[in-house]
Amino acid sequence: MPIKNIGRAILSVSDKSGIVELARALRAKNVEILSTGGTAKHLADNGIEVTSIAQWSSAPEILGGRVKTLTPKVFGAILHDRDNAGHRDDVNRLGIPPIDLVVVNLYPFESTIAREGVTIAEAIEQIDIGGPSMLRAAAKNHKHVLPLCDPSLYADFIREFENGEISETFRLRCAIEVFRKTAAYDAMIAAFLSSTPDTRHLTPDTLTLNLTKFQDLRYGENPQQTAAFYVPQGATPFEQIQGKELSYNNLLDLDSAMRLAQAFHEPAAAIIKHTNPCGVARRDTLANALKAAIESDPVSAFGGIIGANREFDADAAAVVESMFLEVIVAPSFSDKAREILAKKKNLRLIVAQPLTNEADYRSAAGGILAQSRDIVTGKAQTRVSVPHHSSHVAPTASEAKTASATESTSLPQPASDDPAQTPTAAEAGNDVAQTLLSVQPTPSSVPKTSSVTQTTSDHTTQSPAAAEAGNDVAQTLLSVVPTPSPVAKTTSVTQTTSEHPTPTQAAAEAGHDVAQTLLSVLPQGWKVVTTRQPTPEEMDGLEFAWIVCAHVKSNAIVLTNQSQTVGIGAGQMSRVDAAKVAIMKSILPIAGTVAASDAFFPFRDGLDLLADAGIHAIIQPGGSVRDAEVIAAANEQGVAMMFTGERHFRH
Fold first, then answer.
1. Which of 63-77, 210-224, 492-506 has the lowest mean pLDDT?
2. Which of 87, 143, 274, 401 is catalytic?
3. Does residue 418 form part of some domain?
């Protein structure tokens, strides 16, 4: 279409990128420029002749600038169909000349709501009314009026404009972009206003996803499929600092790796293959966690995706330097680590912060499934890690069975009464301090406990009894726990008739108190359902296994020690098969490990299989009609078992 009908343009923009160059191109062809407020001043300051909208329309700005362009003259000039005789008569009678080009971008609502502490009132003032209205009017009438809603369109417009013709294809493209942009703008406003505590609703009657393309992908899940990655408007979910471009499958695995590694407070590493973990560990350093995760299943780790919840430092880089990996994702990478990993040019390094989205979306059955994100209880903030000594060991399966048969829940006694073989009161006091530090919300919130007097003697009987220290543990910990223990009271350790407890008795009593205290701070809904109680070490392992299991495809059985996966049975059609796979995949010793199941055991066969393999404790949701049968089996096998009351299917 010839450009002779572009004689007048309106320019009113918040983002002034490229607007001066565009205006100069228009003025070079003698196009009259109408403008408002800040845009008019910006153009005038750059020596470009402009006419005020208020002057042109004879309608002054009112309401503090809320009304500038919402007048019959402006909208009549944009909306009238030049091919409609009735429209021409109306504008001629009213003296409304045409506007042929509308260059508008919208108030910066997105950047406003991104500010920390922004109020609803502040956000509402950045809701554009006139801008979207003019753009939609021009887009509706795009055959005669060209809308430009984004600076990215300016260069293509100038090229067509200076060549002497605005193509129908470009006009339609610009109209489509307007409706996309205004729809996204409205969706962003609705999402923000729906995010307050009074209006938040993750499953609204109408779901509008305001997403923009982050990057094109080489292909989809398979080479014959096309794909792209979309993110919320304005979001930058990660930064790639090295390696080939990410694939569709890389992104799925990267998501799984991030979520699992970030589920722990301690330094942790997760290795992912096809969205399932093949090795997970937490340790004192990320490098040690990586070593342990790889040790869990070194064969499956080949070609995997690693997720880390700490800066990836030189020690961590040295651990994986010789491995073939697809992706490493971490909160940051040290300069030395980048130097080491730069030798692997195809290895993708991704810097990403913890994910915060509250909902999951998936396509299914011709529609979209929406659900709130799964929340796993038992994370580190609710866990009490109790330092332990070599004499505080988990009972063997035979010992546990004996205890079950006699209905006793006493902890096993040390093999010797020699004080050198049992924890001293000083050691118990250290346990007090360490345990308090692991649960106190703030340093000031925990009452100060009595100091444990150190003795210069080689005999522990000269210091306060370990039983008293153990009682202090229980009382102090209970003082910072808001709710009482949901766990039924167990049989107390047999008390000595001596006025002064022996070191052996004192250590046993302290251990018993610690175990009971640990159980008293279980996450809400967790309960021990077996005769044998889990030891503190087993509790630590059960919590670890439970978190890992929630990130494994169903049906899932996960075997772990205190902080390292041992065997993972993922995505099986039966729970028994999942248990078999977990056992089969175990490279590390199984004896004495713990197990997690993402859903209840429908029969006792799965539990029996695990117990026979050497598992000492199990955590599962419970809820089966045969729970009593499964609990009885655990008691027969001498296995401690926890019910959490929550299921973690993953499909």
1. 492-506
2. 274
3. no
Tell me, yes or no, whether 264 and 180 share the same domain. Answer: no
User: Do 186 and 241 have their domain in common?
Assistant: no
Number of alpha carbons in the 13 Å side-chain half-sphere of residue 599: 19
Q: Do 220 and 298 reside in the same domain of the chain?
A: yes
| CB-CB contact of 278 with 371 (8 Å) | no
Structure-token pair, residue 646 = 């929550």
Q: Are residues 80 and 188 in the same domain?
A: yes
Locate tokens 């009382």: which residue? 475
Tell which of 372, 406, 429 closes a domain: 372
286 assigned to some structural domain: yes
Expressed as residue numbers, the domain containing 574 is: 536-643
The C-alpha atoms of residue 565 and residue 546 are separated, in whole angstroms, by: 11
Is the residue at 352 inside a domain? yes
| Closest to 235 (Cα-Cα) out of 397, 73, 147, 353 | 353
Give the CATH number for residue 169.
3.40.50.1380
Assess contact for 451 and 429: CB atoms under 8 A: yes
Given a contact cutoff of 8 angstroms between Cβ atoms, the answer to whether 33 and 11 are in contact is yes
Identify the domain boundary among 372, 399, 421.
Answer: 372
Q: Do 231 and 180 reside in the same domain of the chain?
A: no
| CA angle (568, 573, 575) in 5-degree steps | 55
Please give the span between the terminal C-alpha atoms of the chain, in angstroms, as a whole number: 54
Q: What is the pLDDT of residues 134-153, one digit of tens each?
A: 999 999 999 999 999 999 99
Residue 392 CA to residue 338 CA, distance in Å, equals 43
Active site annotation includes 392: no
Long-range contacts, 196-205 (Cβ 8 Å, 24+):
196/120, 202/358, 202/359, 202/370, 202/371, 202/372, 203/370, 203/371
The pLDDT of residue 479 = 40
The one catalytic residue in 87, 140, 401, 527 is 140
Segment holding 258, helix H or strand E: helix 248-261
Question: What is the reported pLDDT for 202?
Answer: 66
Question: Do 154 and 20 belong to one domain?
Answer: yes
Query: How many other CB atoms sit within 10 Å of the CB of residue 76?
Result: 19
Determine, yes or no, domain membership for 42. yes
Domain count, the chain: 3
pLDDT in tens, 53-72: 888 887 887 787 777 778 88
Residue ranges of the alpha helices (H) in 454-502? 466-479
Residue 448 annotated to the active site: no
Region label for 155, one of left (φ > 0), alpha (ψ between -120 and 50) or beta (otherwise): alpha
Q: For the segment 511-523, what is each residue's pLDDT rounded down to a tens digit?
A: 555 555 555 567 7
Q: Could you give the CA distance from residue 100 to residue 174 in angstroms, rounded to a whole number?
A: 14
